[in-house]
Design a protein that fits this description.
Elements lengths: L1 H13 L3 H5 L3 E9 L4 E6 L3 E7 L4 E5 L5 E6 L6 E5 L2 E2 L1 H10 L2 H6 L3 E2 L3 E5 L8
Parallel strand pairs: 1-9
Antiparallel strand pairs: 1-4, 2-3, 2-5, 5-6, 7-8
Amino acid sequence: MYKVAVLAISSLVFFSGCATITQGTQQSISFKLEPKETICEISRVGDGKLGRISTSSSTLFVGKDKDDIIVVCNASGYEQSTTKVVSGATGAGVTGVLIDFGITDMITGAMYRYPEEVTIALSPLAKAN
């Protein structure tokens, strides 16, 4: 009986994944873009291109990950803008580290989260005198 109890508790600890269960492994990021003609390519190191957004389609669903997202935006008459969307650990992810060393949450990416909203405003091109 003792061995069964130890095995059950060990399994619970090592396979729990708090953030994976409570927070999920994907999220949406909403982008506010200026000017209206802005089009952005979104990528992440190791994953390549994740998608494309514009002012008419400005929400992107991404898998959570420890790696930051790179957003490169262009619009006619404006300077190109490169923005880094930084990933950070969540409270549930940190709790998972305390319970099961965060193994499951690290593998699934659930212990990380990106900001839910990102604002990107491009600067007009400098006019030659």
